[in-house]
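User: Second chain of the day. Same drill as before.
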Amino acid sequence: MLGADELFDLKQTEHAEIFSGCKFAWEVLPKIAAYVSARVPSEKRVVIGEGTVVEEGAMIKGPAIIGKNCQIRHNAYIRENVIIGDGCLVGNSSEIKNSILFNNAVVPHFNYVGDSVLGHKAHLGAGVKISNYKLIPENIMIEVDGVPFDTGLLKFGALLGDGCEIGCNAVLNPGSIIGRNSVIYPNVSWRGILPDWMMVKSKEVVEVVVRRQ
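Assistant: Same format as last time:
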């Protein structure tokens, strides 16, 4: 489940060609800048599809390609080299850079998405952060068949397969790969590869005691 066609329905983006030649889905990340720049007029910096609403106070730095019928809400921050599909939502205090959102992906409140790909109908709960850079600067490693594998990338956030649900305030550590239709519960700090149709639950113990009067 490391290839783009294993994680994503490539019919749910107008930009499937960007994945051409990528053995591993994360290999698309260094290609985004050149792809977007070649398709966005330098004098415009941003291409926005029909029916998309950009609310007052949103900041689109660009270069960026934004699809049709999207909502870019107040205080959203869309930085450089971003591809957003049709019907997507980017909400209040959410920041996106060097990333691809497939159609109908949702990044609604207080989210950070850097150097990542979000599949069709992937959804982030409020406060979800996708960490894209290690505390100790070095290439992002992932484990493939129990063996560490060097992605060759200093910055690599996450690959979220189609239909993923990530709960509020969860953190996806660098190089996370989440299979299609999998769920990560709120407040979980996740690292590594999660197969399709799985659920990650937090087992934190909550203690209830009598309050002193």
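The first helix runs from residue 4 to 7.

User: Great, on to the next one.
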